[in-house]
Structure formats: structure tokens, C-alpha cells
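testing teh design pipeline on a random one, pls ignore if ur not involved
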């Protein structure tokens, strides 16, 4: 490819569209190869009777454990560094705000044994754990895990350091860090609802791709003991007056 040749981008995901738009604004010639009928990937929309809807739960997230301080060079992003994406949350917010006005939404909810609680698995509202009907059992199992020292190699803190996480299932990692009851009552049904497969069919290292959590057992236990480690809830945002999927149409337009 010579300097005068166009950039060729493959796919219809939002990242492809953002890259194409950014390159085009700099005067580059861009060709997108899209084998789909729509644009935006996960951010595509569904229309019915003239009304446009998001294709599922699609939200903006502009918060992270690793908070952005000032301007950051996007080329310094390190995918191997846990939560490194957090350094660019404000950059993402500014980009989105060029196309959509957004507002923070109230906490997500989860439905467990016939009751609604603030969501733990997506929004990190772990304070709900102490109110669940099986909280005492989870507490006992977490105590046992930490006292037995049986999770040392599979502790969630070792996820990027231990190559075993590339081979074992998410089920194995979850059981090692959450205990049986937390996994069976919360994680397993959540995984099947998201992916239509069990946690045994998901590689542990990639559990966050479908937003499946892997908590430190110490964190869960701290909430059950009344001395929480204050894991901040995840704050989600949604466009005002339109759906998120419109973002891909605005970006490409």
C-alpha cells in the first residue's frame, strides 16, 4: 500500500466507524468493507412502525476505577494493563457529546428470588449482597475459601499474571473466588441469560467481554461483614430524547 492508497477498514462496529470518520476528517481516503445490512455493530438499531429502538441494553459508561487526569494520548493505551481504558473516559465522553446529549441514569436492578435489588453484576452495587436470602451461606463459603488458602493461584488479582486464566473456564475462576452459592444463584443464571451457554464454556481471562464479573472474595466478604471496601458503583448514561443506536448513525452521517 502506497501513501496515496486509501485506508481499508473491515466491519460495521462503532470502532470502525469512529476510525473512518476521524481519518476522513484529516483528509484521508477511507474504504469500509461491511458484510452486514446495518451499521454500528452492538450500537445498531431496530425500527418498528417508524419508531427506532436500541437492540438490547446499550448504555454509555464514562466512569472507571482508573480515572482520567487531563488529556491522554490514545496511542499510549495498553490493552494488557487492567482498567487502562479508564484513562480515556473523559475523552470518550467529549467525543460522544459532539453527537448526543446524555444524562446519568438511576441504578440498574437485578431480580432474585422474586424481589428486585440494586444490581451487583453489572453496576457493582455490592451492598445488595447482604440483603439476599442466601447471604449467610455466601458469607460462610467466602470465609472457608479465604481460610483454606485454596484459591491462591486462581485469585482474581492474578488474572493477568497467571497464564492459567487463558486455559481454565470462567466457572472455575468464579467458584474459586465467589464460592458455590454466589456462583450458582447469581453468576451461572446471569451467564446463561447473556450468552445462552454456561460459565464452563467461557474462558476465564475474557469474562468481562460479556460483562461477567470476577470479584475478589475479600471484597464480597467485606460487604457482608459491614466494613465494605467501597467498590464504586458503575454509573451509566443514556441519551436525552433518543436511543444510543442513533450515535452510530450520527457518527457515520
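output:
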Amino acid at each position: 500500500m502506497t501513501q496515496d492508497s486509501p485506508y481499508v477498514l473491515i466491519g460495521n462496529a462503532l470502532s470502525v466507524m469512529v476510525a473512518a470518520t476521524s481519518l476522513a476528517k484529516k483528509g484521508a481516503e477511507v474504504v469500509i468493507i461491511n458484510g452486514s445490512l446495518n451499521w454500528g455493530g452492538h450500537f445498531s438499531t431496530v425500527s418498528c412502525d417508524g419508531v427506532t429502538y436500541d437492540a438490547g441494553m446499550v448504555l454509555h459508561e464514562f466512569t472507571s476505577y482508573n480515572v482520567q487526569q487531563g488529556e491522554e494520548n490514545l496511542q499510549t493505551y495498553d490493552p494488557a494493563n487492567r482498567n487502562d481504558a479508564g484513562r480515556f473516559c473523559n475523552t470518550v465522553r467529549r467525543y460522544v457529546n459532539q453527537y448526543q446529549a446524555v444524562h446519568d441514569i438511576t441504578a440498574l436492578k437485578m431480580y432474585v428470588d422474586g424481589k428486585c435489588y440494586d444490581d451487583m453484576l453489572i453496576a457493582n452495587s455490592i451492598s445488595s449482597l447482604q440483603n439476599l436470602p442466601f447471604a449467610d451461606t455466601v458469607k460462610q463459603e467466602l470465609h472457608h475459601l479465604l481460610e483454606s488458602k485454596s484459591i491462591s493461584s486462581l485469585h482474581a488479582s492474578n488474572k493477568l499474571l497467571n497464564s492459567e486464566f487463558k486455559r481454565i473456564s470462567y466457572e472455575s475462576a468464579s467458584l474459586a473466588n465467589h464460592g458455590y452459592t454466589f456462583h450458582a444463584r447469581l453468576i451461572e443464571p446471569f451467564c446463561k441469560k447473556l450468552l445462552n451457554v454456561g460459565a464452563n464454556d467461557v474462558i476465564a481471562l475474557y469474562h468481562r467481554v460479556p460483562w461477567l464479573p470476577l470479584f475478589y472474595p475479600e471484597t464480597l466478604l467485606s460487604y457482608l461483614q459491614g466494613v465494605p471496601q467501597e467498590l464504586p458503583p458503575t454509573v451509566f448514561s443514556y441519551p436525552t430524547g433518543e436511543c444510543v443506536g442513533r450515535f452510530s448513525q450520527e457518527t457515520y452521517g
